Amino acid sequence: VPGDPVRGQHVYKKCAACHMVGADARKRVGPVLNDILAAKAGTVEGFKYSKALVQAGEDGLHWTPEALDRFLENPKAMVPKTKMSFRGLKADADRIDVIAYLATFSNG
Ligand code: HEM
């Protein structure tokens, strides 16, 4: 994926209150984001999602870089009843870079 993962690590501070990544990651308010690239939405083991996000996954939503970009710009615009309470990253570069950072915790 394009983007700067080093800068993305700084952007990720906005996510870290709710999400963990890396070897010792555990669920917080939000699910662990290891291996999120290409994953089907709403399928991290042991996390209790909103019905809306599970349904979005059932309807075919997978976290491609493009889908993540759209979700992170304005989560509730894409999945209206998601319980991710985050206003979104409005700057294109912030989204591209945080996705590049997440990609460093994903295989494939
Ligand atoms: C869900 C990323 C910020 C709470 C998700 C998902 C992604 C994501 C990709 C979907 C996971 C899946 O389908 O398995 C991010 C990123 C953030 C961010 C990259 C920062 C830019 C936050 C913040 C909070 C939060 C700040 C808490 C205030 C949640 C919750 C869910 C979620 C509760 C589950 C949503 C649902 O079940 O509807 N996040 N998130 N996230 N996130 Fe975030």
Please describe what this structure looks like.
The protein is mainly alpha-helical and 108 residues long. The chain has one domain: Cytochrome c-like domain (Cytochrome Bc1 Complex, Chain D, domain 2, Orthogonal Bundle), CATH 1.10.760. Helices cover 37% and strands 0% of the residues. It has five helices and no strands. The longest helix is centred in the C-terminal third of the chain and has 12 residues, at 92-103. It is globular, with a radius of gyration of 13 Å. Bound molecules: protoporphyrin IX containing FE. The site of protoporphyrin IX containing FE has 27 residues, from helix 2 and helix 3. Protoporphyrin IX containing FE (HEM) binds next to helix 2 and helix 3.
What topology does this entry show?
Elements: H1 5-11, H2 51-58, H3 65-73, H4 75-78, H5 92-103
The structure holds protoporphyrin IX containing FE.
Q: What is the CATH class?
A: Mainly Alpha
Shape: globular
Here the CATH topology equals Cytochrome Bc1 Complex, Chain D, domain 2
Query: What value does the Rg take, in angstroms?
Result: 13 Å
The CATH superfamily appears as: Cytochrome c-like domain
What compounds are bound to the protein? Answer: protoporphyrin IX containing FE
Strand content: under 5%
What share of residues is helical? Answer: 25-40%
**Model regions low in confidence, pLDDT < 50 over at least 5 residues:** none
- Report how far apart the termini are: 11 Å
Order of helices and strands: HHHHH
Our count of domains comes out at 1
What do the pLDDT scores average to? 97
